[in-house]
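Dear all,

This email documents one entry for the complex benchmark we are building for the journal club exercise. For each entry we list the sequence lines for every component of the assembly. Then comes the predicted three-dimensional structure of the complex as a token string, followed by one or two observations. Please use this as the template for your own entries, and keep the labels exactly as they appear.
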Amino acid sequence: MSNYFNTLTLREKLEQLGQCRFMEASEFEDGVNALKGKKIVIVGCGAQGLNQGLNMRDSGLDISYTLRKTAIEQKRESFVNATSNGFTVGTYEELLPTADLVINLTPDKQHTNVVNAVMPLLKKGATLSYSHGFNIVEEGMQIREDLTVIMVAPKCPGSEVREEYKRGFGVPTLIAVHPNNDPEDKGWAQAKAYAVATGGHRAGVLASSFVAEVKSDLMGEQTILCGLLQTGAILSFDKMVEEGIDAGYAAKLIQYGWETVTEALKHGGITNMMDRLSNPAKIEAFRLSEELKDIMRPLFQKHMDDIMTGHFSKTMMEDWANDDVNLLKWRAATGETAFEKQHITTDEISEQEYFDHGTLLVAFVRAGVELAFEAMTESGIIDASAYYESLHETPLIANTIARKKLFEMNRVISDTAEYGCYLFDHACKPLLADFMKTVSTNVIGKPFSSENGVDNQELIKVNQIIRNHPVEKVGATLRASMTAMKVIKTS
Ligand SMILES: NC(=O)C1=CN([C@@H]2O[C@H](COP(=O)(O)OP(=O)(O)OC[C@H]3O[C@@H](n4cnc5c(N)ncnc54)[C@H](OP(=O)(O)O)[C@@H]3O)[C@@H](O)[C@H]2O)C=CC1
Ligand SMILES: CC[C@](O)(C(C)=O)C(=O)O
Ligand SMILES: [Mg+2]
Ligand SMILES: [Mg+2]
């Protein structure tokens, strides 16, 4: 097996990277019919497996789970997840030979093993589905010619896939059909029905490709979505404590701060998030974020380049083969950070205070979202896809930090995301060391006050730059299609 993307000609690479079409509501009028009455078996019952399965069953589909024998015998968490929710659970041999659609929702690291074990058991003409195309694109997995291969990738952690569905909505989703595996021309109909069953069609579906999904998903998760939230959390907390802010207050400001400021981002983009600051603080957040963009641009570009060339996946797979030495070292180090270990104050922090005392958090978010979006679109990824992988998903990841800090984020996200997050974080922290020496509690921990007031011309210029960034343009259009978006209350 070799990297599939690297076997493509330049023309084919660009063609697949640029595949991105926002689908019309009318294209989902057939609902879940293409999968109605079909036997759907999900392999794995973890973050995505359980939550997608619950939504699909509630949408009227026939869902059961297959787990490896040891998980069943030892009644592991995945077994308990499935059985306590009333699903049938069986071994591969029991469930796979009669399955019409098999959904592989095991960790990416396991995909080669899992697919090699599953494939011989599938009946002729069955469909195999993924929620992330790493195995196909980066590992070059070859699938039996008679099988249809699709992807339905929610742009969101599994927990939110379920929460949004229960709110009567869904999460934006990328769907794709493997160009080498659609022998019966049924892939798109099944992928659309699957997206309806998870609720994705209510939030927006992009008809994409395995290649575009993988390259954009890896970039988003490593940089703005997880990597930078982790770096920003650790550095901001340390700065506040160093400057005498109560540690319990500092921890709470960060833990819920990301969620609160990005809730404004979710509803009205960077413009609305920045508008929640006072005018002097907005100008300062803009200045800080411009500085952050200049410092971090080469790192964001390096991550994008390494993802495109396959260097990133190669080194991560080397770590997989090396018993996850780097991953486990980085995971342990994250658990030992002062932020992670600090109990939070029980004192109330009002919603506005998170903005007023969190100018630096806003600056981190603007810098990270814009840099990730720019690096992706400069590399041939279409703006709508780049928007989902940067601005759109940041609040959903911030929600996981609000639940139980960085531990929870890194638990809920996939194995590739966790690895990429640590990789970015370990490169970014030293890069920001000098910058952090220049900031003080007037931008993190306390309100920003400007002795000079506001220069009208400067404010007009700043507002124009913020509002005219391409992420704001595409975001306004995509958010308009997400009219049922629900407000999340912070505690
Ligand atoms: N996490 C997320 O929110 C997102 C994930 N994705 C994608 O969804 C897919 C699933 O990811 P995620 O939900 O995070 O995965 P999880 O780590 O949560 O999956 C765990 C499940 O996989 C099973 N499993 C683990 N190893 C094996 C193995 N060798 N053989 C068989 N089953 C195994 C586990 O069962 P056991 O009890 O046997 O260990 C468990 O049921 C990935 O492709 C990921 O990229 C896409 C979008 C977001
Ligand atoms: C942000 C990480 C993600 O890509 C996701 C939830 O979309 C993942 O792989 O977990
Ligand atoms: Mg993702
Ligand atoms: Mg991912």
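Observations: The longest strand covers residues 148-154. Residues 132, 217, 221, 414, 416-417 surround magnesium ion (ligand 4) (CB under 6 Å).
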